[in-house]
Amino acid sequence: MNVPVLVVTIFFLLQTRNFLNTKEKMPVWDKRLIGAAVILASLFVIDKILDTNGAYELKATWVCYVALAFNVLVVYIASKRYPPARALLLSLIPFLVVLALTSFVRTFLPTSLYNPYKDVFETSVGFAYVWVFSLFGYAARQRKSYSKEHQARIDREEAERRERQMLEGLVQERTQELTQQKAEITRQKEELELALSELRATQDQLVQREKLASLGELTAGIAHEIQNPLNFVNNFSEVSVDLVAELLEERQRPADERDAGLEDELLSDLSQNLTKISHHGQRASGIVRNMLQHSRTSTGQREPTDLNALADEYLRLSYHGLRAKDKSFNASFRTELDETLPPVKVVSQDIGRVLLNLFNNAFYAVQQRQISERQSGTLKGFAYQPTVVVVTIQTPVGVEIQVRDNGTGMSEEVQQKIFQPFFTTKPSGSGTGLGLSLSYEIITKGHGGTLLLDSKDGVGTTFTILLPAT
Fold first, then answer.
1. 317 contacts 225 by C-beta, under 8 angstroms
2. pLDDT, tens digit, for every residue of 45-95?
3. Domain edges within the chain
4. SS3 468
5. How far apart are CA 221 and CA 78, in angstroms?
6. Average pLDDT taken over every residue of the chain
7. Distance CA 98, CA 91 (A)
8. Is 379 helix (H, G, I), strand (E, B) or coil?
9. Can you name the CATH fold of 298-470?
């Protein structure tokens, strides 16, 4: 038996197991590789024994070639899935071919064919050994490099897996947080909607209280305004009773003594009195009706309204209402009304509330300045004359209503806040702070108009209402 071939064959059988890790990846072929190595070792022992006795020489070298061919088969099968095995395969095939061809020529062909080329064959075998071990070393390095790359890929995939798991965990955690946040937002939304509903209900109640409060302040003024037409009604009623009695007395005279001219005169006076009674009765009825409309919730229906009459009526009511609470207060008020002003389509209750609020504020401002001027004790202070003026003007683009006073005026800071809800310059308990904010909404949002303010501290204030033409 050729010992070098045997050693190399057993070496490659065992190294192939290690190179390909057949114990884990190819367990069936691993057992066959071990079996082949054991058989070769056994044959070597038998060959030596027979050769020592001189009885028989076993030609077992070809068994080594078969074992190498089997090794090549295993490497070929593994190379399909394991790239480094291809370099090992490239080293074994030429080695096996050269050794098998040389052995075949030397053993089975005439020596005359082998001897002339003996050196060539031996040199080829030598190169075959160099080739096989050189490429085996290259294959080993390639395997090491592949193992590093493979491990790096495994580590990278593991890192990606851990990162993916971490991201999935973060996504799940974030999703849970978003779900909780969504539930919290939904709960807060429901609470805000409930709070908004309650706020609107409270606002409606406050608006109604503001209306009733302004109406309560005008109670004395209303009584004063109603008293005047009632006095006329009472006076003309008494005179009419006397006229009727005088007419009846004249009718009871004999026909030749009756004065027809006197009867006609009495009837004429009686008719005039009844007309005046009807007029002043309607006047009182109108005042009551307007006050009921003022306290009633607005329907939002716009109707043609005489703004001149509305302004004149609420101006007098506001003045008498304030004067009823402070008998010492006196002020001059006048109207500068555009007689050409046609009826304007507005919500009369709402515009009446705006005017009443502006008049109340104007009279309050001049009252406060009057008190301040009198407390100064100067001649100029006592000469101060509180004045409130309402002006109506027909313009090309609509109607303009001005409410002017020469009261305390407002500072720049107050003017910035004057239309804010619940802001008031009056003492606690004297105002709700809703009057001007509601007036602003009625004019701007309810009627598409504008409410302007022009005020100078210590000089006076002018509110201007601009209502667009309809």
1. yes
2. 776 666 654 444 446 677 778 888 888 888 888 888 877 788 777 888 887
3. 3-165, 218-296, 298-470
4. strand
5. 114
6. 80
7. 12
8. helix
9. Heat Shock Protein 90 (3.30.565)
Contact present, 436 and 455 (Cβ < 8 Å): no
- pLDDT given for residue 51 in this prediction: 60
Q: In terms of Cα–Cα distance, which of 458, 467, 454 is closest to 394?
A: 467
Q: Which range among 142-151, 267-276, 292-301, 325-334 shows the weakest confidence by mean pLDDT? A: 292-301
| Spatial distance between the Cα atoms of 328 and 312, rounded to a whole number of angstroms | 23
Q: Which of 226, 194, 196, 465 is nearest to 351 (CA)?
A: 465
Say how many C-beta atoms besides its own lie within 10 A of residue 400's C-beta: 19
The reported pLDDT for the residue numbered 296 is 54
CA distances from 272 to 133, 279, 340 (A): 146, 10, 30
Residue range 259-317, pLDDT digits in tens: 777 777 777 877 887 887 887 677 777 666 666 555 555 566 888 999 999 999 889 88
354 burial via Cβ count (<10 Å: 0-12, 13-18, 19+):
buried
3-class DSSP state for residue 2? coil
Rg, C-alpha atoms of the chain: 61
Among 27, 19, 44, 35, residue whose Cα is nearest residue 140: 19
Confidence of residue 362 (pLDDT cuts 50, 70, 90): very high
H-state helical runs in 296-395: 307-325, 348-376, 379-383
The per-residue DSSP string of 65-120 comes to HHHHHHHHHHHHHHHTT-THHHHHHHHHHHHHHHHHHHHHHHHHS-HHHHGGGHHH
Q: Checking DSSP bridges between strand 387-395 and strand 332-336, what pairing results, if any?
A: parallel
| 128 Cβ contact list (under 8 Å, min separation 6) | 94, 95, 98, 99
What are φ and ψ of residue 330, in 5° steps?
-135, 140
What's the predicted TM-score (pTM) here? 0.49
Give me the residue label for tokens 């008494």: 238
Q: Which residues does residue 332 pair with via DSSP β-bridges, in sequence order?
A: 387
Closest CA to 61 of 5, 139, 125: 5
**Of 433, 419, 167, 441, nearest in space to 300 by CA:** 441
Which stretch of 58-62, 160-164, 350-354, 389-393 has the lowest confidence by average pLDDT? 58-62
Distance, CA of 434 to CA of 203 (rounded, Å): 10
